[in-house]
Design goal:
With 66 residues, this protein is mostly beta strands. The chain has a single domain, classed as Wnt (Wingless and Int-1), C-terminal domain (Endo-n-acetylneuraminidase fold). The chain has 1 helix and 3 strands, in the order βαββ. It has a 3-stranded antiparallel β-sheet. The two termini are 13 Å apart. The mean pLDDT is 92. Keywords: Developmental protein, Disulfide bond, Extracellular matrix, Lipoprotein, Secreted, Wnt signaling pathway.
């Protein structure tokens, strides 16, 4: 229950921001690998082919109750 473990936005000051969402408990930062479609090309007629690109992103999650 609560917001422990939920992803938050470190730079936002709104309700999705870590300061507000984590209720002052702080947050953990981690780096994860994400795979997305990229370099998509349209092939005549009616097909789109994409490559898979992997990139590292920072993810911030609220700390749980201690």
């Amino acid at each position: 229950m609560g917001t422990g473990g939920r992803v938050c936005n470190r730079t936002s000051r709104g309700v999705g921001g870590c300061d507000v969402m984590c209720c002052g408990r702080g947050y953990d930062a981690s780096r994860v690998s994400r795979t997305t479609k990229c370099e998509c090309k349209f092939h005549w007629c009616c097909a789109v082919r994409c490559g898979a690109c992997e990139r590292q992103v920072h993810v911030h999650t609220c700390k749980g109750r201690t």
